[in-house]
Amino acid sequence: MSSTRCYSSRLSWTVALIVSVCGLFSFETIAENLVIKIEKGVSTALPIAIVPFENNTGESLIDVAAIIRNNLERSGLFRSLPVNDMPALPAALEDVRAKNWTSLGIENLVIGKLSKKNAGTIDINFRLIDVYSGKQLLGYRIPVQSDDLRFGSHKVSDFIYEKLLDKPGAYTSLLAYITVDQDSDRGKIYRLQVSDSDGYNARTILQSTEPILSPAWSPDGKRLAYVSFEGRNSAVYLQDLATGRRERIIHGKGINSSPTFSRDGEKLAVTLSRDGNPEIYLYDLKVKSLMRVTRHGAIDTEPAWAPDGRGLVFTSDRGDGPQIYHFNLADNSIKRITYNMGRYNTRARYSPDGRKLVLVNGIKGVYRIVLLDLRTKIYEAVTIGELDESPSFSPNGAMIIYATVTEDGSQLAAVSADGFTKQKLVAQRGEVREPVWGPLIR
Amino acid sequence: MRQLGRIAIIFIIFLSGTSCGMFSGEGSEGVVEKRLSPVTVSEASVETMGLASAREVSPEALDGRLLDSYNVDVASLLDIRVFQFAYDSSEILEKYIAAIEAHAGYLIKNSNTKLVLEGHTDERGSREYNLALGERRAQSIQRRLSLLGVPELQVSVVTYGEERPIELMHNEAAYALNRRVEFVYR
Asked: Which of B98, B126, B160, B173 meets the CB 3.0–4.6 Å disulfide criterion with A347?
């Protein structure tokens, strides 16, 4: 099993936090977490009981079961039994009385224990039980460092999600986003932050008094590309998360923006206007060379790779208003994708299975996140905001995270890919924008 | 007053940045220099640079003055540094033509002066598309200046898209003020 590998990648994360301070200038490393509020759920959700884990460490620890409960509920696909309604609080298999739970309509039960193996290490023991059949569906011991208990809880959530839904969980994946604060001395402060998938554990990896935008994850989750205006103009940077080391990879006259990684991580698609007009280019990260993709007097921007790597979608206003186009890398052909969807369609991203596009659709001054089925051409709005932008799929395709403008400024929100469950991720201060969901950590 | 306040804040940033050495790199320098202007301005004329006055400018009045006594009013036309645009458009509004001609005249006369055209958009829609739109707006003024005889090397373009709004409200009045090109003399 890959749990030990995840664990070590987590370790390097801790290192990343310490080292990444060498960004622009010094700043506090502790960022404020995002608070998640579930706005709407569905009644068809799977009932589950997650019993508080027995703590045998003799130390006061975070509530692992509560983190797992919140994770599963957030998907909209689970409904968890409140602790107060639980008939008993078993921690071992032999203490489980199936009838207690089946009478409450609970089919799946999670029990667990936390114990100390040696200094600084905690073992999470957990079991997922089907109380109807009386069978254990899953049982694992996950050793984590004491300060990584939250990550361990996400790992347990991934196990449960995958076992019961037969799809990978994305709880151990990370979010990256931009925050903007008004500082009384320095004016606006822009931060590039990375957090756990539930908004906790937020860490600043770059801070600047000039705008930062368009963060993009490398497919291995180890690097972020982004755009920073620190040199008075846009430039594309690539930052290693473990070391905090970064490199200005694309700069020059005009726009240097909109980076997205190819699936193999070897190329970046970017928008450059060095020849006077925004065009899509491919930047080869190994050879460090640029290849021009589009050649048109209109605005061409916001490239995003198809999961199979054979094409790109991008935004262009070569037709009526900005619309989404597809570029076929095999024969260089360009095809318009968005028809009969109004005069404003921008910033498309593929679903992980490549079957859908999520994009920003503007009609009569209202900008919403729309999901377009590429085969049937049927599209539907999955958000109800007035100014929604920057949609990004979770790596398992189950959720879409986006930014929504409220009277308090921009905040993050997430919606299940079926549009049924919505949640708001609220920053304790300032604005949050441009969320991007990192890849699955396997 | 708003403009004065901004200058004051920037000055404080500059002081604090240099004194404690917290800032490094080009970024913080950019913050300071962007607001410096070689055009000497009295306190009163600083106020006319404010947004409120830009909103009050009426095309009839400017055109009339241009025809009557171009030279007399060049100074006040040069005070116009914010040029607004219509939604999703990079077309220069008729009311700004006289002011752009005044700036062209100033640049030709002062060939050592450099002008940066900062393109901006309102917050609606996607950030990257807006970045491109901001550039297109600045380029449309750059082209006009070039047609008026301003050497290309004197005028450069930078776009901030929707990243630097001057008005933070989420309504049409705010959007109109944010869809703009700012003239920044260096």
From this structure: B126
